[in-house]
Amino acid sequence: MTTRTTPEPQGAAPLLDLQSLVVAVRRRRRLWSAMAALGLVGGTAMAVLMPPPPTAVTKVLVAHQEDQPNDPGTLIRTDAALLHTTRIAGSALRSLKSPEKPEDFMKEYEGVGLTNNLLQIDVTGDSDAEAVARAKALADAFVADHVRRIREAADAEAKALLDQRDRLRDDLAEVNRAIGEGSSANGPKTSANMESLFARRAELTSQISDFGQRAAEARIGTPHLVARTQIVDAPRVVRHSLPKAAATNGGVGLALGLALGLAVAAVGAVVADRPVLRRDIAAHLGASVIAELPHGKGGLWRRRRTRAARARLASSLARTVRGSAEPLSLLELGSEQSTTTIALDLAGALADEGPVTIVDGLPGGRLAGRRPRPGDPTVLGGDAAAAVPYQERRLGVGSVAPGTAWTDLHHLGTRTVLVVRAGHGSAAWLHTVARQLADQRIAVIGVVLIDPDPRDRTDGTLWDVAQAVPRGRGERPPRRNGGGASHGVPAVDGRRGTERVPMWTTRIPDIDQDGR
């Protein structure tokens, strides 16, 4: 049962209707499902056809003289950067006796700092044995280079301390010589100078001892750092699991394909601007949705429900035809097969009351060219419509797709039912259809929506059709279509028109709906 709603005030349309966007993307599930499946197959195929090269891994414990508990990892990152130098790469290649260039070899390994003092080295090769040998040579070259740099730094520091000690010894020798020369002199002034020289000698002796001790400590600390810098995890081959790699790559490809498919579907829906909700289709066409039919055959249960829905629609349209002497037409937009089926059903429902002739105005005369079945009504082409007797009931079938000859539609019927497939026509074209039918003085009884969205809960009933049909400046207003109710709109002669009962939307449940 349809509940009457209060008409909402008309305002500016939103820049982006999320509900319509979600429905449009969901209707394009074949696109993004196909792209997701393509990403899954592509990722799995990449794992199978392009397996990773043989890889070996080793770990090196690196000791630094400047180690601090609060070090943010700067030292180990420096070691990882030093690993990618031609000096270490060339030393490893020389130990392997390989003619490869260091620049090319650096592209086949990488170093990652796991902690402040633990460096992991990953090396690839043509085989597992070659990868292990390369990892061992590279780790040894790095350890040797690190030890050499530690010793060079210690030797440089010790040499600087010893050089300073030697300069102090020279100063001490000068002080001792001055003391020896002044020991033979007497007098108060000489005594004061001697005290100053003795104090200077004591100070120099203390500094010389301190510099010698610091030089010894600088060299003593080197063996400790050298001993701590070592390979703690011997080079080993990294085993790759093909099922795991295929599952990982397939999952990544599936996610990327799905995301790309959804993005393409969303952008395409926004650019195409093809209404899919019954609310939007009714608003653009200026006529209410009077019935809905699913698209396609579907399963057995769905076919039964579709036949029942078609029978109810044919009975409803038959009552509409009996109540008026004006001919009725069915005009399709993206639903030619459904339109011809509805026309045949309607002709069958009216066959008991007299002969019915279907005038085929479809492009190419497809309905007139089909093979007739027993009990089918007479079908004539659009050119033979004038030969139909006036007393005989006539039913027109045509199209409002792009390229339609609008002036020919009036000969199919002065009243029409639009059979529109959801998401087929753009909003601009729906506006064109509404304006052209209004200009031809063809009253639109309602819209039969084909392939509706099963989750669409919008209202397809228009309460004021005159405001629903878009018109340009200076255009005359269209005739009142039968899809809505005129709420006392003034007529052309100044009298107020009669208020008509609104045409309720008949929702025909689809197989995906619960029928409530």
TrEMBL record:
It comes from the Bacteria. Pfam families: Wzz (PF02706). Residues 468-498 are annotated as: Disordered. GO terms for cellular component: plasma membrane. Residues 16-94 form the Polysaccharide chain length determinant N-terminal domain. The chain crosses the membrane at residues 31-50. It is found in: Cell membrane. PANTHER family: CAPSULAR EXOPOLYSACCHARIDE FAMILY, TYROSINE-PROTEIN KINASE. Belongs to the CpsC/CapA family. This is Polysaccharide chain length determinant N-terminal domain-containing protein. The lineage of its organism: Bacteria, Bacillati, Actinomycetota, Actinomycetes, Kitasatosporales.
